[in-house]
Design goal:
Number of strands: 18
Helix content: 10-25%
Structural class: alpha/beta
Number of helices: 11
């Protein structure tokens, strides 16, 4: 069966590991032959999995070391052991009962390695780690069960408009990156680009991932409505701050629905939907999965979605569909299925801009048209050659997906000017 490219949650490599659960037992480093001292230090690379690239940081030290997986908030997790033999290194990690082994060989200025976990063997190319400069300030906003950590990208003027940027589905972080799709920095580029043009932005990792991992202890507790409440709390904080002349929302993909629901509860001046669904998610899932499933699995998917739409949990799910419909994610799906985005958009009092890329593989023009029908006075902009991660991309699947994990590619050139013009109402 082909890799499923969908907007829902999928199973992750290393999932379920937190700092609270880590095994801190570290064996003494074993040295066999003379170690190449160039191996010592921090290395960064991407584990190439069937679900996409997963960025990791490996810190090799003479007697120990750590593994970090930023997308899953695994930070400085200690090795069980590390063994050096000339240009070779073997790392053993016991991560929450899961045995991990990294085998690598230093070649030039990089380490060619394999990452082995639970019988899976993945390619890992490590290069010297370069610390990324942080261009934003961090603020905290009180929300249910704690404080939400929010990244504030200040502009060069005050007071200025401020935009809340809401990320898409699954484990997508505030920068637009995930362990599934890879690192593309699309939302980071959008935030920084707007700030350079005099529009401040805020964005944050959803509860359960990244900076806000601790706000979600059980996957079954998350819901669309909880995400909406978090967004409303952030908006109200911005509205109370005299540093901002007006408050706006940009929602990308699933963030479009969350943004329009939040805009119904808070006084924002404008709302921008980028690659937002215009139909209930069961219709879109059926469309996305067409041709990727066997007839039997297609029928099962339809039956599961029918039950979930009625608010009924499904006990028996085939192994092939567990990533989409595992028991712990079904409550979230139920909360999602009750909304029709086109109907919800009608309830907004703010100005609306709908943006759709012409080479988006996940959300189609059908959705943009549905949103436009729901809000006839909305502006509708088709961005030529823009895909789901806001980059210029070809229509063919392979070339399009290659941009998902390439942070060096800029945003499609027409996107930022169009959004800036709309927000400042110029």
């Amino acid at each position: 069966m082909k890799k499923l490219l969908v907007v829902c949650f999928v199973a992750l490599l290393l999932v379920g590991c937190t700092q609270k659960e880590k095994d801190t037992q570290v064996d003494k480093t074993e040295e066999v032959n003379a170690m190449n001292e160039q191996l010592i230090g921090k290395w960064a690379g991407d584990i190439e999995t069937p679900n996409g690239s997963l960025p990791v940081i490996v810190d090799l030290q003479k007697e120990g070391g750590t593994l970090s997986v930023p997308a899953q908030n695994v930070s400085n997790y200690p090795f069980k052991s590390v063994k050096y033999d000339g240009d070779q290194v073997v790392v053993s990690i016991n991560l929450n009962g899961s045995a991990i082994e990294i085998k690598g060989t230093l070649k030039g200025e990089q380490i060619e390695a394999t990452f082995n976990q639970n019988g899976g063997k993945y390619t890992l190319l490590l290069k010297p780690y370069e610390e990324q400069p942080v261009s934003y300030e961090t603020i905290t906003v009180p929300v249910t069960n704690g404080d939400l950590t929010v990244a504030l990208q200040k502009s060069n003027r005050e007071p200025s408009p401020v935009v809340l940027i809401l990320a898409g589905s699954g484990p997508t972080d505030k920068d637009g990156n995930s362990a599934i799709a890879g690192k593309n920095n699309s939302l980071k580029m959008l935030a920084e680009g707007l700030a350079d043009e005099g529009v401040a932005t805020v964005r944050y990792d959803k509860r359960g991932i990244g900076d806000n991992l601790s706000l979600l202890t059980k996957e079954e507790d998350v819901s669309i409505d909880q995400y909406v409440d978090d967004a409303v709390q952030v908006i109200n904080t911005l509205l109370a701050d005299k540093s901002y002349s007006s408050v706006h929302i940009i929602g990308h993909s699933e963030g479009s629905l969350i943004g329009m629901l939040a805009a119904q509860k808070a006084n924002v001046e404008s709302f921008v939907s980028i690659a937002g669904a215009g139909r209930p998610i069961d219709e879109i899932l059926g469309e996305q999965l067409a041709g990727q499933l066997t007839p039997a699995l297609t029928k099962e998917t339809t039956n599961i979605l029918t039950s979930l739409k009625k608010g009924e949990l499904v006990d028996n799910v085939s192994p092939e569909l567990q990533a989409l419909f595992r028991p712990s994610v079904q409550p979230y799906m139920i909360s999602w299925l009750k909304y029709n985005p086109a109907s919800e958009l009608q309830k907004l009092n703010s100005r609306v801009l709908i943006i759709q890329g012409t080479t988006d593989l996940q959300v189609k023009a059908t959705d943009a048209e549905a949103l436009k029908t729901g809000r006839k006075d909305a502006e509708l902009l088709y961005v030529e050659g823009m895909n789901h991660v806001l980059k210029t991309a070809p229509a063919d699947r392979e070339g399009n997906l290659a941009t998902y994990a390439n942070p060096t590619l800029p945003l499609q050139q027409d996107l930022l000017p169009a959004i800036h013009k709309f927000i400042v109402n110029d």
